Amino acid sequence: MRRSSPSSSLPPAGDPNARRNDWAVIGTLLPYLWVYKWRVMAALVCLIGAKVANIGVPLVLKNIVDSLSITPSHPYALLVLPLGALLAYGALRFSTTLFTELREFLFARVTQRAVRTIALKVFRHLHALSLRFHLNRQTGGMTRDIERGTRGVSSLVSYSLFSILPTLVEITLVLGYLAARYDKWFSIITAAALVTYITFTIVVTEWRTHFRRTMNELDSKANTKAIDSLINFETVKYFGNEDYEAKRYDEGLQNYERAAVRSQTSLSFLNSGQSLIIAAAVTAILWRATQGVIDRTMTIGDLVLVNAFMLQLYIPLNFLGVIYREIKQSLADMERLFGLLEQHREVADAPDAKPLVTRGAQVAFSHVEFNYDPKRQILFDVDFTIPAGTTTAVVGHSGSGKSTLSRLLFRFYDVQQGSISIDGQDIRHVTQDSLRHAIGIVPQDTVLFNDTIEYNIAYGRPGASHEDIVAAARAASIHDFIESLPDGYATMVGERGLKLSGGEKQRVAIARTLLKNPAILIFDEATSALDSKSEQAIQTQLKEIAKQRTTLVIAHRLSTIADAHQILVLDHGRIVERGTHGQLLAQRGLYQQMWDRQQARQDEDLASPPLELEQD
User: Which residues form a coiled coil (predicted)?
Assistant: First the structure.
């Protein structure tokens, strides 16, 4: 199969054309939250209640201080304090915490369900994308994008609804009170500080955002190199390239380090500027309040109130800068996550697609033409039929298009011209799920999940009983081997099944396919990577399970398909010969040439004398 040139699964983060508008990202997120609209609204009510109670605390404190200042030397001053003010102070303090916790309680399910729903949707969408996408993807970088994106959803929801909005509510209440009760300079200074602070924060944070994008991209690239190297651990060892791989990984880490240092330097500048603005504002406010007490236009309680207001504003204002930065970073993280959802599904079910109904499972390729790339066509006018319950073998040189037939039958790709049908049903007009349930495959390179042998066999039919799994293993002649292992069916097979030999993996694949019990079987050079003894044993099993099933065999060794009902010879994407083994040999064409070469090679192997050990 021809692979496209490697590329990232998404456009580069630095490409402005690839970026989503921040509001577009938020707009994509909102429907996931609005599913729980009543919880959201109740949480917002609690949010406002908490801020109103928080503003009430300094007001009650002012009354208490003023009451104390009236009779400061009275020995029973505490007795003359308004008892209601003390109770109100305690109640407001408690109410602030109570409303905040109620808000968190109400919104916890909303946030977590949104994260879960989005992550699951992305996961399903990735499985729905075409094989072309997954051949071009970079697994390490993509998994980081998903991880950061889902974390960004939680951060954005938390910061925007529970920090930005309550801060704005508190600022509005404080400014309103200062403007109504005190000298206009209090509200002017406070408003000016707010405008300066917010403007400075937004401008500098926007400038900093590209550092975060660069860090994300470099982090994904470094992680991709690491995972790719670890997946190909044996190849690295074969060539002794551990140092080379470490240097490649370190290059990515160095680039990330430089971007992280630039990001931290700009963050320090932002924090220093914010602190300067707040310090100047607080100093000016306290100077005006102190002057008011001296002029007797304000009481000590007013001074305490203004100071408490400024302290209450200082904390959320300082936090507001952090929140804005976190929101921008979360949006940058979510941008790539939602970008995955926008990847086009090259192969999708038709709107009126119906489940496939098999009645013998006759397969027909009708004048099929196909290419992975318009510049290079793979199949030309391929036309053949596999009668129900028979075996058709396809042979040809490497690159002739043999394996493409199985991918088209599974509908990993759609044909450009012609059609493929099963029992007269065009596979483009049936659901992909029902189509793939009707087909089983034993591939050349069997890849297993890093789980138990039982799990990997059961993958053919999730939910199958242990008895059914054992029966499939017996039919694949691997049960005795499994039972001989210390952990039996609970034995872990390792990453990609590397703890098992090639023959053992093939038998697991056969058992998995038997458990699936499909109407159509595909053997895609299922034994070409095995030694002769293993191949002979497994070929016997393959022929047994192919009985009474429609079978497509993609073969390399011609001796394994000599008894097929029909043999097709592919050459450069065209069927150049067809017939039984005997008929094709009689034609003395390409098939006969391939047969003679393989027979000659076998004769050479048999004629080679065994190696003798040298005697001393």
Answer: none
Domains and CATH numbers, the chain: 21-341 (1.20.1560.10), 349-438+519-604 (3.40.50.300), 444-517 (3.40.50.300)
CB 39 within 8 A of CB 109: yes
Phi first, then psi, for residue 487 (nearest 5°) are: -100, 5
As a whole number of angstroms, the distance between CA 391 and CA 380 comes to 22
**b/e map of 163-174 (b: 16 or more CB within 10 Å)?**
bbebbebbbebb
8 A C-beta contact, residue 367 and residue 175: no
Burial of 511 (0-12, 13-18, 19+ CB in 10 A): buried
Q: How far apart are CA 587 and CA 590, in angstroms?
A: 9
Query: Rounded to an integer, what is the distance from CA 64 to the centroid of its chain?
Result: 57
Residues 6+ apart with CB under 8 A from 471: none
Pairing mode, if any, of strands 391-396 and 566-571?
parallel
Q: Do residues 337 and 150 make contact, with C-beta atoms less than 8 angstroms apart?
A: yes
CB atoms within 10 A of CB 425: 18
What number of residues does the chain have? Answer: 616
**422, burial (CB in 10 Å: exposed 0-12, middle 13-18, buried 19+):** buried
Confidence band, pLDDT 50/70/90 cuts, at residue 418: very high
pLDDT digits 0-9 by tens, 221-234: 788 788 888 878 87
Phi-psi region of 573 (alpha: psi -120 to 50; beta: other; left: phi over 0): left
Which among 209, 229, 220, 210 has a CA at the least distance from the CA of 328? 209
- Cα 330 from chain centre: 16
Q: Are 510 and 538 in contact (CB under 8 A)?
A: yes
Tens digits of residue pLDDT in 363-372: 999 999 998 8
DSSP for 257-280 reads HHHHHHHHHHHHHHHHHHHHHHHH
Whether the pTM exceeds 0.85: the reply is no
- Closest to 194 (Cα-Cα) out of 318, 286, 52: 318
